């Protein structure tokens, strides 16, 4: 994903410069942490990256596609095919099994019906929950619930996994399990962007993006990317 002077100002009144124009390139297979105080613009950044919000200025290229030129329906389709989301609160349907929760993502995604359950089961196996497919979320620990949410994000085979405080509601042991999972996905080649308050999570990422008052800055191993 490539941001060229991408920024977002909420119109207000009063207007809020939630993300000031910034440049950022994230290459395939990177693991990037996004840190910064509350209200600094992290979720704004993630929502733009995930095509949930359109920037008010600048150009955003995803897999080489200039997302600013897309009609709404095409943006939605691109989001559905290329982006997986994991949020702080797991957003699972409580009355549906782990398998059903993951399968539903494929219904919206338009995958052939006969493939859905097979792929959902594979995704749950990938997050280490192959033995819990028929369990309701209410019977799972917080960490297991978040792993179901990760499976739901992965089942559509996205090219970019975006996580907004994925360990924010978890105790240390569960947070560790989710973090280990994100690292495994990264090791397997997934591109992962994770917003976190947790210094342990941030320390594991190869690269850290800091956002303060809507201003982005960079630290960590910056081998290939340019930041201006
Ligand atoms: P963070 O995720 O770092 O806590 P956000 O990206 O959610 O920060 O918010 C950045 C700034 O934009 C904050 O000042 C917040 O109040 C403001 N903001 C977020 N969403 C909206 C909105 N829909 N309308 C107006 N201002 C908003
Ligand atoms: Mg936020």
Structure description:
- It is a single chain.
- With 228 residues, the protein is an alpha/beta fold.
- It has a domain at 2-90 and 159-220: Rossmann fold.
- It has 7 helices and 10 strands.
- The chain has helices at 42-49, 72-82, 98-109, 113-126, 142-154, 172-187, 199-204, and strands at residues 2-10, 16-25, 31-35, 57-62, 65-66, 83-87, 160-164, 191-195, 207-212, 215-220.
- α3 packs parallel to α5 (142-154) and α5 runs parallel beside α6 (172-187).
- Residues 222-228 have low confidence and may be disordered.
- Magnesium ion binds next to α1.
- Residues 10, 16, 18, 36, 38-44 line the site of adenosine-5'-diphosphate.
Give the biggest beta sheet.
Answer: 6 strands, mixed
The secondary-structure class comes to alpha/beta
DSSP strand tally: 10
The CATH superfamily of the domain at 2-90 and 159-220 bears the name P-loop containing nucleotide triphosphate hydrolases
Strand order of the largest sheet: 6-7-8-3-9-10
Residue stretches low in confidence (pLDDT < 50, at least 5 long) are 222-228
Radius of gyration: 17 Å
Give the proportion of residues in helices: 25-40%
What compounds sit in this structure? adenosine-5'-diphosphate, magnesium ion
Give me the number of helical elements. Answer: 7
H and E order: EEEHEEHEHHHEHEHEE
The top-level CATH class of the domain at 2-90 and 159-220 is Alpha Beta
The CATH level-2 architecture of the domain at 2-90 and 159-220 is identified as 3-Layer(aba) Sandwich
Assembly state of the chains shown: single chain
* Rounded average pLDDT: 91
CATH-defined topology of the domain at 2-90 and 159-220: Rossmann fold
* Strand portion: 25-35%
Per the principal axes of the C-alpha atoms, what is the gross shape?
Answer: globular
């Amino acid at each position: 994903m490539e941001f060229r002077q991408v920024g977002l100002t909420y119109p207000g009144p009063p207007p809020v410069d939630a993300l000031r124009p910034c440049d950022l390139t994230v290459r395939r297979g990177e693991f990037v942490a996004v840190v910064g105080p509350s209200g600094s613009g992290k979720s704004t950044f993630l929502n733009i990256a995930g095509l949930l919000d359109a920037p008010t200025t600048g150009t955003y290229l995803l897999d080489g596609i200039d997302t600013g030129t897309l009609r709404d329906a095409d943006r939605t389709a691109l989001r559905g095919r290329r982006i997986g989301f994991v949020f702080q609160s797991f957003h699972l349907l409580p009355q549906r099994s782990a398998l059903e929760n993951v399968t539903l993502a494929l219904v919206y995604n338009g995958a052939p019906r006969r493939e859905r359950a097979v792929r959902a089961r594979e995704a749950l196996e990938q997050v280490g929950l192959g033995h819990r497919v028929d369990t309701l979320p209410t019977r799972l620990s917080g960490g297991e619930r978040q792993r179901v949410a990760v499976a739901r994000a992965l089942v559509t085979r996205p090219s970019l996994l975006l996580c907004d405080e994925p360990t924010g509601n978890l105790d240390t042991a569960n947070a560790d399990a989710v973090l280990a999972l994100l690292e495994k996905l990264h090791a397997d080649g997934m591109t992962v962007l994770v917003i976190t308050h947790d210094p342990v999570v941030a320390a594991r990422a190869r690269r850290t993006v800091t956002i303060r008052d809507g201003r982005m800055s960079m630290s960590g191993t910056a081998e290939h990317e340019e930041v201006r």
